[in-house]
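Box 3.1 A note on notation
Throughout this textbook, protein chains are presented in two layers. The first layer is the amino acid sequence; the second is a token string describing backbone geometry. Keep the layers aligned when reading.
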Amino acid sequence: MDWYSRYVLSWEISVTMDDGFCVSALERALRRHGCPDIFNTDQGCQYTGGAFTDVLKGNKIRISMDGKGRAMDNIMIERLWRSVKYEEVYIKDYETVKELIDALRSYFEFYNTERPHASLGGRTPAEIYNKIAVLRKTA
């Protein structure tokens, strides 16, 4: 997620706790959106392992990690997952992982392009993110 705009840059789902799906989501975000100056995560094993941190280091991205047990350090991500759970996951009964993935794909498209955010003055993450992208190109 881009913290400024709340735009979800990339996501994946996995039925295991290995780091492969996190690395894949990170690499996709970097390909599609470029490299940020800094990348923040919690201290989950998927993010502290060499596979994930090596991608960040290889792209000269500074690594920021929340303090252990400090959910408030990454409150925007915590809020995103609350929204995903209460607006999508908890109100549905998925038969398969594919159904879940399809539903999440639709949800994140909705979240980015249609769901207004009070913290963004009623605008969507895409409105803010795209405005910033245009400004970067003209700078």
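The first helix runs from residue 20 to 33. The two ends are 23 Å apart (CA to CA).
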